[in-house]
Amino acid sequence: MTLRFSRRPLALLAALAVSAGIAAIGSAALAADDGHARLKADLESKLNIKVDSITKSGYLGLYEVYADGTLFYTDEKGSAYVFGNLVDAKTRQSVTEARMAKLNAIKFADLPLESAVKQVKGNGSRTLVTFEDPNCGYCKRLAKDLQKLDNVTIYTFLYPILSQDSVDKAKQIWCSADKAKAWNDLMVDGRAPSGKGDCATPTQKIVELGQKYNIRGTPTLVFTDGERIPGAVPLDRIEKKLASLGK
């Protein structure tokens, strides 16, 4: 997966966690009458982050903190924090991964599909959305795999986050007479788009959309149930997910 947008505050926290294991972050207490307000304010002040939510994890008295698209854990006094996967001992399933999938879900109906490159394969009965950069190597690998997918409608948002050249190619593809062909010519066959890219394009709108949804790397896949999966997902996993949505 190609990464682009960084999250400096949480990257700093991760570095501190590696060097110190468990780091002290203050002694703000959770008062019974103000919920999580004091803990939230303490975290935001000391760690320079914007906390989106704080909820009880149900494990070890820890609180789940969701900030900048990432989860970490702390106690009710904010005396220490923990990064990494929280795993249920009975089910051996990652509680963190399950929560991240729910918190990062995208409301599919809100996606502006008219601003995506559309491909219909077979009867087009299944639907898949991707965010991809024209210069992303993993996206090219995914594009080749998706050629083998049948009975699906694929909407590809041209998400040029790697370079100005990516922006130029995205505009050229969008301005082509056959957008899907221009996309596949580049990603599957390595033939650069020949258009001028001088028409009206939704490029900036798509970049802002990706930032809104905290999409920091390409490719990112989005399914109709709102689940997002980053990276060049194996074709069998895509097939399995699409099949589950059809049941």
Automatic annotation (TrEMBL):
Its main location: periplasm. Residues 31-97 form the Disulphide bond isomerase DsbC/G N-terminal domain. SUPFAM superfamilies: DsbC/DsbG N-terminal domain-like, Thioredoxin-like. It is found in: Periplasm. GO terms for cellular component: periplasmic space. InterPro entries: DiS-bond_Isoase_DsbC/G, DiS-bond_isomerase_DsbC/G_N, DiS-bond_isomerase_DsbC/G_N_sf, Thiol:disulfide_interchange, Thioredoxin-like_fold, Thioredoxin-like_sf, Thioredoxin_CS. Residues 120-242 form the Thioredoxin-like fold domain. The keyword Zinc does not apply. Belongs to the thioredoxin family. DsbC subfamily. It comes from Oryzomicrobium terrae. Keywords: Disulfide bond, Periplasm, Redox-active center, Signal. Pfam families: DsbC_N, Thioredoxin_2. Required for disulfide bond formation in some periplasmic proteins. Acts by transferring its disulfide bond to other proteins and is reduced in the process. Residues 1-31 form the signal peptide. The keyword Signal applies. It comes from the Bacteria. This is Thiol:disulfide interchange protein. Gene3D superfamilies: Disulphide bond isomerase, DsbC/G, N-terminal (3.10.450.70), Glutaredoxin (3.40.30.10).
